[in-house]
Amino acid sequence: MKKMTWRAPLLAMMASIAFAGCSESQRATTETNNNTAVNNINPDADTVTTETNANLVLPAPDTTHQVEKRSKTIGWPAGKMPVAPAGFTVSKFAGDLKHPRRMYVAPNKDIFVVESDDEKKSANRITMFRDTNSDGQPDMREVFMTDLKQPYGMLVMNGYFYVANTDGIMRYPYKEEQTKITAKGEKILTLPAGGYNHHWTRNLIASPDGSKIYVSVGSASNVGEYGMDEEKRRANILEINPDGSGERIFASGLRNPVGMDWQPGTTTLWAAVNERDELGDELVPDYLTSVQEGAFYGWPYAYFGQNVDPRRKGERPDLVQKTLVPDVPLGAHTSSLGLEFYNGNRFPAKYRNGAFVGQHGSWNRSSFSGYKVVFVPFQSGKPGKYEDFLTGFIADAEKNEVYGRPAGVAELPDGSLLVADDEGNTVWRIAAQ
Known about the structure:
Layout: E1 5-7, E2 28-33, E3 36-39, E4 47-48, E5 56-57, E6 72-73, E7 88-94, E8 100-105, E9 111-115, E10 125-130, E11 140-145, E12 153-157, E13 160-165, E14 168-173, E15 186-190, E16 202-206, E17 213-217, E18 236-240, E19 248-252, E20 256-262, E21 269-274, E22 285-290, E23 302-303, E24 307-308, H1 317-322, E25 328-332, E26 336-341, E27 355-359, E28 372-376, E29 378-379, E30 382-383, E31 387-390, E32 394-396, E33 401-402, E34 406-411, E35 417-421, E36 426-432
Parallel strand pairs: 6-33
Antiparallel strand pairs: 1-2, 2-3, 4-5, 7-36, 8-9, 9-10, 10-11, 12-13, 13-14, 14-15, 16-17, 17-18, 18-19, 20-21, 21-22, 22-25, 23-24, 26-27, 27-28, 28-31, 29-30, 32-33, 34-35, 35-36
């Protein structure tokens, strides 16, 4: 097996950017032969180096891989809960929800939960929770919005409440302490709706200075099989002005970049990305990565650097050569969705400035992967290898039974963590003892 080394590429297409301090993941693949570095556009897999793993083994791609092992949700029995590490407690923050997918904590500390699902099953609403006495449990619950279109991302900024529906971004006049929105609102950006295998989610995050909004849009397909005309403005993170104008592609080749957050103390955007299916049990790993302005991350032509997807062999060698290596591999088919950097100080010191990732769980793998929340520690601004944080969602793997499936994660002002369990119709709260 050949050993590949990774060096930072010179991306002439990039202008000088404000998002500094994240060059560690700005890497492309080269192969050294007779002391000469040549572009390696070899579809055979190899040993690769990421920010957190110097010897990540990617097996050869198997285009005949059609394995399906889909989970069946049986619900949580009385008294049963997910399991956190020693020193933490788990409690039910909210129940009787309909597929709670993501949470957003507003500046006034109100907690908004999106209840959203595939088109024919979606509740299409947002429920608001308020903890008026700061005891870690909500004492107010209100249906905040209804009749939405598979909502996911939410944002409060400049007197507006923004909602990312699957087909576009809406904004509504909003005042703090408001418990319901019934106004029609305005559509500030139209987006391509739906997408491959639950890629209907559209996330939102504002820039640290509030001058821009970033919008994640997943692919329409697994690997471009419907033609690339169907992928226009997809598999991207878009940048817009707060009024919806000025759209441009901030980063591309990100198959389904669902979770987004800013690394604490920086202006570096990070994303949790779902990678492609049907190349094998161990291909392709989902990942957490810093997102470089103007960068290309491979989809659908390559993955984890210049490893060519054999289903797109010979296409766009220019983009293959520009493909960056993501920072943190999170395991193949884990469906890594939610992302939240920990800014608080209530958890032990190792968790501070690290990232939590909600892994919804696999279907295209012989045995389950994901179905848990993992934690990625950061030291001196650089990520380490991920570790399990919240487990216990799998009831019986042999029977394909699970109690629930984690998705979004959010930190509360008191330093505890919320986890949206969409299949369990529950939001869990994890607090340090």
